[in-house]
Design brief:
Low-confidence stretches: none
Mean pLDDT: 84
Largest sheet: none
Number of strands: 0
Order of helices and strands: HHH
Distance between the termini: 70 Å
Strand content: under 5%
Structural class: mainly alpha
Shape: elongated
Length: about 100
């Protein structure tokens, strides 16, 4: 096995990081393009899923960076999950403050 082979830990960490990255993209899109409350809520939920998956990878990792356990991807997933959930929460707060202009 080489240092760059795709182990199961790295594969799961990559999947967790991609899920968390999807939360960042959903949260950013919901923040930039206000719309229904479903988009920000989806960003919060997907961000929490990426955060939990990244935390699981970190918890079961039996080595440090470069060991093949996916610990670096786990930390990336945790960071992206926090950012995505935060963006979704911010967009969710903005979605509740819709103002109507009087006619």
């Amino acid at each position: 096995m080489t240092d760059y082979s795709l182990t199961s830990g790295r594969l799961f960490a990559t999947a967790a990081a991609l899920i968390a990255l999807a939360a960042v993209l959903l949260g950013w899109y919901a923040l930039v393009r206000p719309g229904p409350r479903g988009r920000p809520l989806a960003a919060v939920i997907v961000g929490a899923a990426g955060l939990l998956a990244g935390g699981f990878v970190i918890a079961v990792a039996d080595g440090g960076p470069g060991s093949g356990s996916g610990v670096v991807g786990g930390y990336v997933a945790v960071a992206f999950g926090l950012i995505g959930g935060g963006l979704g929460r911010l967009a969710l707060g903005r979605a509740g403050r819709t103002t109507r202009t009087p006619r």
